[in-house]
Fold this protein.
Amino acid sequence: MTAQAELRTDPLALPSGTDPATYCAAALRALSELVAVMNEETLFLRSGNLAAASQLTARKTDLAQSYVTAARAIQHNAAAIRAAVPDAIDKLRQGHAALATQLAENLRVLASAKNLTDGLLTDVARRAGKSAAPATYSSGGAGSNPSQSLRGLSVNRAL
């Protein structure tokens, strides 16, 4: 086959010479491994071990890319795959549901961690503002105006 002919091949077609059952099994394996990595990441995040969770990023990215590529090809060839391997698509759907559940849990843990961090930063900023306020009195005997004291911390939330 010439290079031009190879460029024109359908990127969503199953690789030539690949058995649909073997391809679906490989996709299901990638999906199962992705769910396992997401679960591991969630456990690390829940325990506050962000360094260990970040170590999983490359593996998670590779597995996600493999699964998405396979899922698109399977979706594109669903009729042929269903005819050749009737239960493969149902197994993949079940695996995809497990992934969706794991992703929802992962996002819930991340949201909790973000809320906790925001709360801690707010508390630190309030205490820093209180402790930085001068303990003086005005000529009328009233306390100093807190609006002139340090108000807190500046935090870049873009990260």
Remarks:
- The two ends are 48 Å apart (CA to CA).
- The first helix runs from residue 3 to 7.
